Amino acid sequence: MATTKKYYNAWMRILFLSALIVGIAACSSDDSKDEQLTNDAYWKVSSTVGAAQGSSAIIITGLPGVKWSAEITEGTSWSTFSYGNYTGAGTKMTGEIAGGDEINILYVYYPAHSGKVQRQANITITFDGQEPIQLALIQLALDQQNTPFFGRWAELPANKSNANYQYVTHYALLSNQTVRNYSFCYDKSKKAALWVAYPIHSSYLGSLSRSDAWAYDPIIPIANQPNLERSYKSPYDRGHQLPSADRLANYELNAQTFYFTNMTPQLNRLNQDMWANLELKVRQNSCSDTLYVVTGAFFDNNNTTTDGAGNTVALPSNYFKVLLRTKSGNTGKAIQNCTANELISIGFWVNQENYGNIAPPASICTTVADIESKTGFTFFPMVDASVKKQNTPSIWGIN
Q1: Which of 113, 158, 198, 285 has the smallest number of Cβ neighbours within 10 A?
Q2: Same domain, 151 and 124
Q3: How many domains, in total, are found in the chain?
Q4: What DSSP string describes 336-390?
């Protein structure tokens, strides 16, 4: 595909021409604020990459003038800070945080991985006067797809076999723990996820600004993804299925929501108005016990539009959400240990149309069971069927 080749050539030019460390902006001119700032290092997009050759960028940010050092402590036989050198050299780097409009980026390069198991490189970043920061880069094996833990996580629909489907889970570092970010069922023939499943909890929410880190998903073959460096043809937005606003606890969590596999062509006035209001309403129903959400796209016809590079992509006719949580919100119990009377659920079925800038109407509310019948997927398979027959909008703050 021409756009893929264009993207690859552009990316290779970046690899050859980019300095290993390019500067970053760090921050405040107010001395009293400077004392409170913490130097930091984090992955620009993801700590998990596919089997193909490439590089992953570490953003280094903090007080201008602070010196830092980086060392690859594990994985030195295949990862390096020096492009094209995988013989064990180039595993240490030092620098100084720049100021102004510069960006400090440290690239970790890796060759193609033909092994049968994933491998991990550990990187230690040390700032003067601070405890070291530990980062890990995981490169998947050639045929590895980071499949979801079906039957273990409450938000996951049942596995459904189809030659066009690829199941993926993205993980991220949160409070020094590796956590699931979201899982999805990707239809390569439609270049879109049929569903995206994720938990909502205060630990995932936050107050960071959205990253706008638009990027190809490192797990799905680029040829099977839309090119969304620019948006779909007007009037369609790059509509998130997992909203960016649900993942503002740290940069990596948020950046992964900007993978092209998390996007579908969604009418701009739907995406920015009623759908956005529905996403907010869902967040407002988060609870201590965790809210489990599946968002999906449904294709009831053969309508199409084009991606940002002019390639034809399927156009959803409908969108849906299904929600599950405990009634009280603070039982401290896992979903599988709750009785049917302790659980509440609801579904939302949305047409690809302009509803206006209104609150989510009761007319889009339905049962999880109804959406199961429409889509053919089985949602929340570990709960009793009676739970999935509920449709009480008022419990969810919808009138």
Answers
A1: 158
A2: no
A3: 2
A4: GGS-GGGEEEEEEEEESS---S-PPPGGGEE-HHHHHHHH----STTS-TTGGG-
The pTM of the full predicted model, rounded to 2 decimals, is: 0.79
Q: Domain range for residue 73?
A: 1-142
Are the beta carbons of 382 and 154 closer than 8 angstroms?
A: yes
Q: Are residues 138 and 154 in the same domain?
A: no
Claim to verify: residue 96 and residue 225 sit in the same structural domain: no
- What string of pLDDT tens digits covers the 399 residues of the chain? 443 333 334 433 333 333 333 333 333 333 333 334 478 898 877 788 888 888 888 989 889 999 999 999 999 989 999 876 666 568 999 999 987 767 788 999 999 999 888 899 999 999 988 899 999 898 988 877 788 989 899 999 999 999 999 999 999 888 878 899 999 999 999 999 999 999 999 999 999 999 999 999 988 989 999 999 999 999 999 999 999 999 999 999 999 999 999 999 999 999 999 999 999 999 999 999 999 999 999 999 999 999 999 999 999 999 999 999 999 999 999 999 999 999 999 999 999 999 999 999 999 999 999 999 999 999 999 999 999 999 999 999 999
Token pair for 122: 């550990």
Residues 227 and 366 in one domain: yes
Choosing from 98, 127, 142, the residue where a domain stops is 142
> Per the structure block, which two tokens stand in for 88?
């064990």
